[in-house]
Write a structure and sequence with these properties.
Blueprint lengths: L2 H11 L14 H21 L26 E4 L21 H10 L5 E8 L2 E2 L5 E2 L2 E7 L4 E10 L5 H6 L10 E8 L5 E8 L9 E8 L4 E8 L18 H9 L4 H4 L28 H9 L4 E9 L2 E8 L7 E8 L6 H7 L2 E4 L5 E8 L11 E7 L5 E7 L17 H8 L9
Antiparallel strand pairs: 1-2, 2-5, 3-4, 5-6, 6-10, 7-8, 8-9, 9-10, 11-12, 12-13, 13-17, 14-15, 15-16, 16-17
Length: 433
Amino acid sequence: MPFEDEFGDALRRTGDSFRPPDRSALVEGGIRRGRRRLARRRAAAVAGSVLALAAVGLGGAYGGGVLGGSDAGDRASSAAGPASPTAPAAAAGSDGSITGRQMLDTLKGLLPEGKVMHEEGRGNGTTAPGTPTMPYASVVFDDGDGAAAIAVGLTSLDPEGAAAAGHVTCPSQTLVAHDSCVAETLADGSRYLMFQGYEYPDRREETRRWRAALLTPEGVLIDASEYNAPAQKGAEVSRPTPPLTPRQMKALVMDKAWQPLTKKLDKPEKEERPDATGTGATGTDASGPDAVRDGLVRLLPESLSVMDKGGQEGYGFAVVEEKENGKGASLVQINVQRGMGDVAGELEARADDVTTLPDGTKVMLDDDLGADGKGGRGTVGWTVDTLRTDGFRVVITAFNTRSQSQDATRTAPALTMEQLKAIALEDHWLTFR
């Protein structure tokens, strides 16, 4: 897979729960289909890995269509050597567009002394369906201590929206194990984040991923990532750490050299907010981005204490342990989704046991989540998946570990199947329909 596609996948991977921008080119039918694809990705995630929260990976809110396909927009690439004269030359951008060559030249001009062995870039544009693409540049850079992938992307977001906040908010260690994360507000009102973690949270490979993100008060996001390997995935580690220090990464995204390009970005679209009743026109937000998390915490057995909690629209998690004679930390996570009727057969086929209640609600149980070996050693997950006749779904899972990427911390999850079932079928969740 080309590096720009890996970069795009990483960006998209972290924004699955956010809505696409309400751009005129996105017809309502496309949005509905995108949400269903999003929901299916969530369903798969619940079956095999922790859902990514915002600020995990390279970005927080690059949901369906923001990046577009790998061939969309203007591209400039060179297999070897910096600024190869034989590389496809991008247009000058006199029409106000951003070109791949401009992105590459700006990135390379901000790197310290070293050799660029591979480069690829893309400007802004649209995919065939009319979805806008994000300009980016990626290089393989060697300062003499080993080749490393470095990439940067530009986009505009509602600076007051949840998607924007996700890019510059440190994730919980429960969901994303990392070495360090610093988030700060700068003197001009910009928000900055420096994340130092790993490509694989379970560290099955020692590929480090360091990310710097700058969000301006106007909604311009400059998002850069670097690795200690020549590719995000599938390449051997080439050096102990990525080539740029945190200070250099901050200088890179804050440099004024980006301003001529960021001025060409579209004005950010206002992110949809819940209406006065708190229901909102789309999504599953009944009272705010923390509504699912707060509902989960309220419905947990009183015998458990909450050690950590978090979430976003449609998703919540809590790390719990018994108040008396604690047996170890246990992760509980829940998803609340609409429009899932078209995947009913898929969900039933995956379950160990399926029951249909008198009102037609399907209750599907799975008590061997974790057996796929994708979690830490000895991890066990118990899932109750409920699907109502109108496609409204509530799925809850409890693990015998505080983080799915970590080894088991107890013999069994802190909640029984019956307790999980009671929470999933609570009338409380019907306010999200």
